[in-house]
Design a protein that fits this description.
Blueprint (H helix, E strand, L loop, with lengths): L2 E5 L2 E4 L4 E8 L6 E8 L6 E6 L6 E3 L7 E6 L4 E6 L8 E11 L9 E2 L5 E6 L1
Parallel strand pairs: 2-11
Antiparallel strand pairs: 1-3, 3-8, 4-5, 4-9, 5-6, 7-8, 9-10, 9-11
């Protein structure tokens, strides 16, 4: 099982950048896909981005394509979310999660569990 802890959130101006980190523990980190989700006040949690266990496949929500980049460093057991050109609608609590199944590659096969506590992203205009 993978346990995750998010960090890197904060206050940023519209158009600015942040990089979120998700530190994972567990022997299976390098074998599972990882994902980022977010939840704004009064809204349901939504998918943001995901990366396959090998890093060879990534997928993004349409709302963040071209602005956000997900990556992973297996040596550091860490997944990153680089967020550029931030917009007010990006403000939310961002959560990291690990796939429950090993070696999934296709985005539509990911089944995320093992959620972290989240990190707050605030975008000021």
């Amino acid at each position: 099982q993978v346990h995750v802890v998010e960090s890197g959130g904060g206050l940023v101006q519209v158009g600015g950048s942040l990089r979120l980190s998700c530190a994972a523990s567990g022997r299976t980190f390098s074998s599972v896909a990882m994902g980022w989700f977010r939840q704004a006040p009064g809204k349901e949690r939504e998918f943001v981005a995901a990366i396959s266990w090998s890093g060879g496949n990534t997928c993004y929500a349409d709302s963040v394509k071209g602005r956000f980049t997900i990556s992973r460093d297996s040596a550091k057991n860490t997944v990153y979310l680089q967020m550029d050109n931030l917009k007010p609608e990006d403000a939310a609590i961002y959560y990291c999660a690990a796939d429950r199944t090993l070696y999934n590659y296709a985005c539509n096969s990911f089944d995320f569990g093992s959620w972290g506590q989240g990190t707050q992203v605030t975008v000021s205009s």
